[in-house]
């Protein structure tokens, strides 16, 4: 095995595909030997993918996302929450998030980005002029465009962080950059803010910057709550560290950094408007089984099975799955990598959550790449996600226009269960790698990196 991974030699699918361009890289090939380094190639691919994603929204863009009752929004597969929330959460009326309106169901970092983007949209539209028939609709389109740009930057940050987390595997960033999930879901909502923060937090952890890792987790949790799950994964890896005392000190700094960053970002808003700040928590506590979740699919296919309180089922299933992850981490023959446990933790959260929107899969993307960077496994999983992406919009076309359904409720429910099965299968592959470390494609390279920097003596565990 060489000291640096080449996909055309390391990945069977990439090796087969390389035959079209001359075959696998030779023994003397050097990564990044020219200007087009693996990272620059990944960034270029990401820019193309993100641009194609925006272009795919063009049918809705031309119609200004005027109303959800417009079937074009659904049949053209171009829906985005962004322009609608500009109109529906008071931004178009000049309201300040959390203060003037208490119905914004997003954490404070996402709310702040929305507020700044709203100001930017209004400023840009004022420069362009108010010749539009409906200024509010025009501003909502500017709001989407600014958001799309910010999400693109966030995606590029995630690509860079993924490529650099295991330096001897610089091509892994391409698996994020070329993802169908990134193309389809990048601009549906603001999830890439948390994805970027989480990706850089993992990078900071691998670079022995536990305090900064914690700060980034806190920032990510103030954008979407799921990055907090990284703390549990980190706790499990330090429990298997060679030098637990040193590792626990680092984990303590990570936890402190998370708490400090989260409180610093949330406390001012909570102090100024408790009701506005708490809207996110109220909304998620009160909602029932919603689109995309296994519970919603079961409710369609077997409604009698969900007579009990859905919250108790969610909590119970979640505790069981997280308990199994703890047992797995403790019985594994070698200490699991952080990315493996983080992927399993976030996957478990999505599998039992009351809602699983299409863009939530972006949470898993960099984690899946770091946990199992193989084209075949990642593509099989994402094919199921693409199938669900199509089915949810076709289902919602009939949901908003019941007289003209495009697919039945049962077909939609089976598409949900298909994505559940695909994610469970990918989790199974990662679990197999944990129990049989010789199958893990990342571990040899991560351990070489650890050895080079003497990280094992400091109690750290490869990412």
Automatic annotation (TrEMBL):
Transmembrane helix recorded as keyword: yes
Tell me the keywords, alphabetical order. Cell membrane, Membrane, Transferase, Transmembrane, Transmembrane helix
Its localization reads: Cell membrane
Instruction: Locate the transmembrane regions by residue number.
Output: 35-55, 143-161, 181-205, 212-239, 259-281, 313-332, 338-357, 378-400, 412-431
Molecular function terms in GO for this entry?
A: hexosyltransferase activity
Q: Does the keyword DNA damage apply?
A: no
Chief location of this protein within or outside the cell? membrane
Gene Ontology terms, cellular component aspect? plasma membrane
Q: Tell me the membrane topology, using the record's own terms.
A: Multi-pass membrane protein
Family the UniProt entry places it in? Belongs to the glycosyltransferase 87 family.
Q: What is this protein called?
A: DUF2029 domain-containing protein
Which species is this UniProt entry from?
Answer: Phytoactinopolyspora alkaliphila
């Amino acid at each position: 095995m060489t000291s640096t991974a080449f996909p055309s030699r390391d990945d069977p699918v990439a090796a087969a595909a390389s035959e079209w361009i001359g075959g696998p890289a030779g023994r003397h090939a050097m990564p990044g030997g020219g200007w087009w380094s693996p990272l620059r190639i990944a960034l270029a691919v990401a820019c193309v993918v993100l641009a194609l994603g925006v272009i795919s929204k063009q049918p809705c863009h031309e119609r200004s996302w005027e109303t959800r009752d417009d079937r074009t929004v659904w049949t053209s597969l171009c829906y985005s929450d962004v322009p609608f929330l500009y109109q529906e959460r008071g931004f178009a009326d000049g309201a300040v998030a959390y203060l003037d309106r208490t119905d914004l169901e997003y954490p404070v970092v996402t709310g702040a980005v929305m507020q700044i983007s709203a100001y930017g949209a209004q400023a840009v539209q004022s420069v362009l002029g108010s010749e539009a028939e409906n200024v509010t609709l025009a501003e909502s389109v500017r709001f989407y465009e600014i958001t799309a740009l910010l999400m693109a930057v966030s995606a590029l940050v995630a690509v860079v962080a993924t490529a650099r987390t295991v330096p001897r595997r610089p091509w892994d960033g391409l698996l994020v950059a070329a993802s169908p999930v990134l193309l389809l879901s990048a601009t549906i909502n603001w999830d890439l803010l948390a994805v970027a923060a989480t990706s850089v937090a993992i990078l900071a952890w691998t670079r022995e910057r536990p305090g900064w890792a914690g700060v980034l987790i806190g920032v990510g949790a103030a954008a979407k709550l799921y990055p907090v799950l990284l703390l549990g994964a980190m706790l499990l890896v330090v429990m298997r560290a060679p030098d637990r005392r040193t590792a626990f000190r680092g984990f303590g700094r990570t936890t402190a950094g998370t708490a400090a960053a989260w409180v610093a970002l949330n406390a001012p808003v909570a102090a100024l408007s408790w009701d506005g700040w708490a809207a996110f928590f109220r909304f998620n506590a009160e909602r029932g089984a919603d689109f995309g979740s296994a519970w919603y699919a079961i409710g369609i296919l077997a409604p009698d099975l969900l007579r009990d309180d859905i919250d108790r089922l969610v909590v119970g299933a979640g505790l069981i799955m997280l308990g199994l992850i703890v047992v797995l981490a403790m019985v594994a023959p070698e200490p699991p990598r952080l990315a493996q446990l983080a992927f399993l933790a976030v996957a478990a959260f999505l599998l039992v959550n009351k809602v699983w929107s299409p863009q939530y899969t972006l949470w898993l993307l960099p984690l899946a790449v770091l946990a199992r960077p193989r084209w075949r496994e990642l593509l099989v999983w994402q094919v199921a996600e693409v199938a669900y992406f199509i089915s949810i919009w076709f289902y919602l076309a009939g949901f908003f226009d019941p007289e003209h359904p495009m697919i039945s409720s049962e077909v939609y429910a089976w598409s949900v269960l298909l994505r559940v099965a695909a994610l469970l299968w990918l989790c199974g592959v990662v679990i197999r790698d944990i129990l049989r470390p010789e199958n893990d494609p990342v571990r040899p390279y991560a351990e070489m990196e650890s050895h080079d920097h003497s990280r094992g003596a400091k109690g750290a565990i490869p990412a």
